[in-house]
Amino acid sequence: MREPWRSERVPDRSAYAPDHGGAVVASDWRARLPLLTGALVTLRALQAEDAASLFSMLTTEEVSRFISPPPTTLEGFRRFIAWTQEEQTAGRHVCFAVVPRDLTMAIGLFQVRALEPTFETAEWGFALGSPYWGSGMFVDAARLVIDFAIGTLGVHRLEARAAVQNGRGNGALHKLGAVREGVLRRSLLRGGRYLDQLLWTIFHDEWTDGGAAPEPSPTPRNES
Length: 224
Ligand SMILES: CC(C)(COP(=O)(O)OP(=O)(O)OC[C@H]1O[C@@H](n2cnc3c(N)ncnc32)[C@H](O)[C@@H]1OP(=O)(O)O)[C@@H](O)C(=O)NCCC(=O)NCCS
Hints:
Structural class: alpha+beta
Shape: globular
CATH topology: Aminopeptidase
Number of domains: 1
CATH class: Alpha Beta
Low-confidence stretches: 7-25, 216-220
Radius of gyration: 16 Å
Helix content: 25-40%
Oligomer: single chain
Order of helices and strands: HEEHHHEEEHEHEE
Number of strands: 8
Mean pLDDT: 87
Number of helices: 6
Bound molecules: coenzyme A
Strand order of the largest sheet: 1-2-3-4-5-6-8-7
Strand content: 25-35%
């Protein structure tokens, strides 16, 4: 995943901010993200108070080793949260906190960012604290985010990138029914070396009844 953890990673597209004519008026989500409720989690906008829990959940080696490096300080997470609010207002990016139904604490996040002037082609990324891996919360949250991306942001093509070595990340995308399109060679600099990433896509017309069409080719098992 290539999270745009810092604002300088994303070009300024504000001059081309999209004006969607979908079910939800574009300015609604720009001003305020809805609360999305699943069986196991709720998704809501990030709040400044999430900095501490996200810092502890997402900066561990096992969570961060195959993704763009998250902020390394609590203050860095506060700045990241403020930046997500600015990007949402500008109509370029949304970021949901993942909150287990029985907690108020954010244990992870999902990001969706526009790859062109509108959200028709977008990239998503996600990370959960490792105590919640394998809990079912990922799929529960992912379905809500995909429904929101397609139904509200107007996404036609939703891309995800995962390092080839990222067994859980690729396994999670495969399980959702994303289709593996190819390899982006040496596209993620991590730990001083460039990693290849797999490119996975979900199209709006393949996403029905909470799942995409099954991906025919098996996902290679790599490091977990
Ligand atoms: C990616 C992430 C959000 C997924 O959440 P999760 O709770 O671990 O996901 P799940 O357990 O529901 O699904 C992972 C699947 O991958 C499978 N898997 C695990 N290791 C694997 C490997 N080495 N190769 C292939 N599949 C693997 C799991 O068995 C599981 O499938 P199953 O439920 O059918 O058994 C979480 O692992 C995470 O935060 N990772 C760190 C950040 C990250 O890598 N983000 C993704 C970048 S694209």
